[in-house]
């Protein structure tokens, strides 16, 4: 297994945990960020933590997915 494979496996596990813990899928969280009009990676992370109670790594996962989504 390559390092990239391990990274993707970890992201998939984190996304499943996010949905189990919050009741919302990763895609739904990305849509929440879209609707918020908050911009900037760390601004999004902090906003998700402060406004929605996400943990740091959960918020980073959402912010990364928002940043890396297809345009």
Mean pLDDT: 96
**Annotation field: number of helices:** 4
Number of domains: 1
Q: N-to-C terminal Cα separation, in Å?
A: 30 Å
Q: Sketch the major β-sheet.
A: none
Q: How are helices and strands ordered from N to C?
A: HHHH
Radius of gyration: 12 Å
How many extended strands?
0
Strand content range: under 5%
- Shape, please? globular
Helix content: over 70%
Uncertain runs are: none
Classification by helices and strands:
mainly alpha
How would you explain this protein's 3D organization?
The protein is mainly α and 71 residues long. It has one domain (3-68). 79% of the residues lie in helices and 0% in strands. It is built from 4 helices and no strands. Helix 3 packs across helix 4. It is globular, with a radius of gyration of 12 Å.
Q: Which features would summarize this protein structure in a list?
A:
71 residues; mainly alpha
Give the gist of this structure.
With 71 residues, the protein is an all-alpha fold. The chain is 79% helix and 0% strand.
Task: Summarize the SSE layout with pairings.
Layout: H1 3-22, H2 26-36, H3 41-52, H4 56-68
Helix pairs in contact: 2-4, 3-4
